Amino acid sequence: KQSIASADMDLNQLEAFLTAQTKKQGGITSDQAAVIAKFWKNHRIKIHENLINQSRWDNVLKNMNWRVDLKSQSRHIDQINTPVAIVEMELGKNGQESEFLCLEFDEAKVSQMLKKLSEIEESMTLL
Questions:
Q1: Which residue numbers delimit the COMM domain (predicted)?
Q2: Residue 74 — pLDDT band, cuts 50, 70, 90?
Q3: Rounded average pLDDT over 38-66
Q4: Closest CA to 17 of 9, 6, 8, 29
Q5: pLDDT interval class at 90 (50, 70, 90)
Q6: Which residues neighbour 71 within 8 Å (Cβ) at sequence distance 6 or greater?
Q7: Which residue has the higher pLDDT, 50 or 43?
Q8: Which string of DSSP letters, residue by residue, matches the chain?
């Protein structure tokens, strides 16, 4: 059933749903309910991931690597030998070739990025 997958039902929800379906006029038999329950228990994670991948229309972050370097060249002499974070992000969709994005952050930009990520985390926690 599509409603099982779209609701990403846990085992208790699934049992209640299937019990209701067996009692409904024109519903399913208890044998069919047992088969559906076994299938869902074995394939829930794979089905859920597949639904998420199908619902995405933009690239997602597949991987991220970083390192810290010292600037050896700059237009401004006071920036030489200052630390910079080099961040490489792998973006793409499953089954498609990835794109790579390389960013350079100084200390102030790293702090700003961490602050923004903290705000995102707080917003997600509230939801």
A1: 60-127
A2: low
A3: 84
A4: 9
A5: very high
A6: 79, 80, 81, 82, 83, 84
A7: 43
A8: -HHHHHTT--HHHHHHHHHHHHHSTT---HHHHHHHHHHHHHHHHHHHHHHHHHH--S-EEEEEEEEEEE----SSGGGTT-EEEEEEEEEE-TTS--EEEEEEE-HHHHHHHHHHHHHHHHHHHH-
Tell me the whole-structure pTM to 2 decimals. Answer: 0.50
| Token pair 């930009």 in the structure block, residue | 109
> Residue 108 pLDDT more than 70?
yes
**Dist CA 36 CA 45 (whole Å):** 15
Mean pLDDT of 104-126: 93
- Phi-psi map region of 35: left, alpha, beta (phi>0 left; psi -120 to 50 alpha): alpha
Which structure tokens are listed for 123?
A: 């917003």
- C-alpha 45, offset from chain centre: 13
User: Taking the CA of residue 96 as centre, how many other CA atoms within 13 Å lie in the half-sphere pointing to its CB?
Assistant: 14
**pLDDT tens-place string over residues 4-16:** 887 788 888 888 8
